[in-house]
Amino acid sequence: MRVLVTGASGTFGRAICARLDGLGARVAGLDLAPRADDPVEVLACDITDDEAVPAAVGAAIARLGGLDLLINNAGIGGPAPAELPPGAEVRRQLDINLLGTWRVTAACVDALVASRGRVVMLSSRMAVMQLPLAAAYGASKRALVAYADALRLEIGTHVGVTCVYPSAVRSPIHDSTAAAGLSLEGMSQYEPLEGVVRTVLRAALSGRPHRDLATTRRGAVEFFLARHLPALTDRIVARTLAGRVRSGAFEGAGLAAGVVARHGETG
């Protein structure tokens, strides 16, 4: 199997690449900042660059001798309250999480169609169950799923397209949110990285392609509730947020000032 992984030098990417390489796959990666100790060859590529992406993808496919599997793993998070105007942080998340995935996938389509391969999209539980103060991440991941749905309709006769929905995993993706005083500790239950890797492999290697895959049993329940009982999940998240505000979790966080003030008025 010939595999291309984006975000290959990050927490998820390194683990996915190492596992596939250990199974005997031929794996190449793309990352903005490859590391000397990456488990596979990783090409430097800024997936927000319209011209750089086709060149890097072409080089990777040439090295692999074709392409059977694309794992769109690259993504970033960051603080972005929905009540505030979209700025550079919002545009950055949308450009990487959604448009970066779109650019890479488009550059891979011909090779994947030729091999009747698969695409695995690393989405997020937040694609279906939004958390507060992180609107850009949730919006980008929900839009990613919409893109995957359209892609499936267009190339699904030849290429399988699966979305994988991890919850929270401890990794540097949360650092910028925590630095802004908007840590979502207590809003999510962390899950092990191994479960995410295992689910990605299931999406890649199963006999028939899955449409959507949660990474834990709890995640599957949350996915079902968010899809079929969204008002209930809204109430659960809102109640949890209220508890976080009362505990002083957002004290001094300027981006959360509106949320804190409104909860104070209703408390």
From TrEMBL:
Keywords noted in UniProt: Oxidoreductase
Gene3D superfamilies: NAD(P)-binding Rossmann-like Domain
Gene Ontology terms, MF aspect: acylglycerone-phosphate reductase (NADP+) activity; triacylglycerol lipase activity
Protein name per Swiss-Prot or TrEMBL: SDR family NAD(P)-dependent oxidoreductase
GO BP term, example: phosphatidic acid biosynthetic process
Family per similarity comment: Belongs to the short-chain dehydrogenases/reductases (SDR) family.
A Pfam family recorded for this sequence: adh_short
Any one annotated GO CC term: lipid droplet
Source organism: Actinoplanes aureus
